[in-house]
Design goal:
By secondary structure, the protein is of the alpha+beta class. The chain is built from six helices and twelve strands. It starts with a strand and ends with a strand.
Length: 260
Amino acid sequence: MKIATFNINGIKARIDALPAWLDEAKPDVALLQEIKSVDENFPREIFEERGYNVETHGQKSFNGVAILSKLPLEDVTRGLPGDSDDDQARYIEATVMGDHDAIRVCGLYLPNGNPAPGPKYDYKLAWMARLEDRARALLAEEVPFVMAGDYNIIPQSEDAATPENWREDALFRMESRTAFRRLLNLGLTEAFRARTQGPGHYSFWDYQAGAWNRNNGIRIDHLLLSPQAADMLKDCQIDKEIRGRDKPSDHVPVWIDLAA
């Protein structure tokens, strides 16, 4: 089962690039972030005609997450539990039925948090605490699950080309990285680092200042696996070359292959 996460930075802007990548990469499941569309305006027909089931949790002009799945989806839920007043569309869950196992997929778009410190950073940290609570609940069910998306977290210095430029940024502040580490310490596996070590691997390059051409990137798109899902992990890769194509997102897809 090939599961990808991809912050597309607007479905309208990626209306050609996203289907082209799907046709080439052929993920069984694609978890999308920043669709920037209300549910009723999401162009689901483009994906349904490619054999994908489509579930969205949208919001006008901002945020928004979606699941595209060639496999059956069950028990779809929208919104991260823990704050009934949170109206930002950043989280969606569903159970994907594989050939051998059912996988709970959790698609997330974690808050950026800048400027930090400040209210937006407080929201980010509170959101991460809720995500930790959700991970604990899923772990208690002892089901295979994947929490994948744009975490807006640079886990370590080697995950940034110029870490010194990010020291006080919400993506790299110690409180952010500590919250991410708490997730891992629950027993989750960060899929990419389970397969690949060392610096120079990024999933985001800013549109400004020639970041892509200079490979001045950061790695902020992650797939965290429960112990049961980690046992199924066969591969994890970053589709870096997508960033150099026509009208790209500033993120690129990251995907895993599970023996499910």
